[in-house]
Amino acid sequence: MKNLIRLIRPHQWVKNLVVLLPVFFGGALLHIESVYAGLVTALCFSFAASSIYCLNDIVDVDDDRRHPVKCHRPMASGAISIPQGYTLMFLMFILSMLSTFLLRQSQLETASVILFYWLLNIAYCLKLKQYAIIDVCVVSFGFVLRILAGGYATSIHLSKWIVLMTFLLMLFLSFAKRRDDVVRMNETGHAPRQNTIRYNLTFINQAITITSSVTLVCYIMYTVSPETIQNFHTDYLYLTSVFVLVGLLRYIQIAVVDKRSGDPTKVMLHDRFMQFVVLAFGLAFLFIIYVL
């Protein structure tokens, strides 16, 4: 049972809380129905993501056995067989689809987005992740699909800025994650991924700089846009840009100086500095839209 739980990686489910972004930026955190729909959608995506983790470990089993860290994964270590992996994969997907019935509205639209996410990631595991740049774009688009599903489930209109920021931020995090692979390749002479040879530190560092810069600019444009000011009845949201800047700088420090950006989820769960910045950003944002 322990190895089955490790295979579906429940600790990674926290990233699916991104589906709550429409609720947060839509100023609907005090609406119980919206929060409920967002949490159910996050659960649906968690099951779907776990299904993909199973397929990913099946496809990468040989590469993982040669990896210094991933060799301990249940599939690579032989603790779970490939047939068991496939069984768990489809079970998780079925649970994902069944969970959509817990939604009280837009069930079909939300389920359709999750199905598309699942099919896209199957293509990613089987082929698309072999191509540099395309791989990080697919991963980032997966998070866009999450917020689209969150928007459908909660009936909250998504600002174009939120969609752009989500894609750009996840692209930044994906490049930072690939940087960890490049560093390991340079140290060991072995590429952790098939497409790692199409990256190098110069390219990765420039990509991280570009995506972080554009993400910050996009957020600032969001805070000062007439649409946002009219929606929240305040023009003080630009002040929260400070926390976005500090958060991006801290993550770049983790990637470039500490060289431990291989798992963004672990960074967020263990780095106190990042947790403080995210919490401060959230509290400042909420204070401005609900109190000021």
TrEMBL record:
Any one Gene Ontology cellular component term annotated for this protein: membrane
Signal peptide: none
Coarse class of the protein's main subcellular location: membrane
Localization, UniProt: Membrane
Keyword Transmembrane helix: yes
Keyword terms of this UniProt record: Cell membrane, Glycosyltransferase, Membrane, Transferase, Transmembrane, Transmembrane helix
TM helices/strands, residue ranges: 12-30, 36-55, 76-102, 108-126, 133-152, 158-176, 203-224, 236-252, 273-291
CDD domains: PT_UbiA_2 (cd13963)
Membrane association type: Multi-pass membrane protein
Domain of life: Bacteria
Record-listed E.C. numbers: 2.4.2.45
EC supergroup of this enzyme: transferase
Gene Ontology MF: a single term: transferase activity, transferring alkyl or aryl (other than methyl) groups
Name this polypeptide is given: Decaprenyl-phosphate phosphoribosyltransferase
Source organism (scientific name): Prevotella vespertina
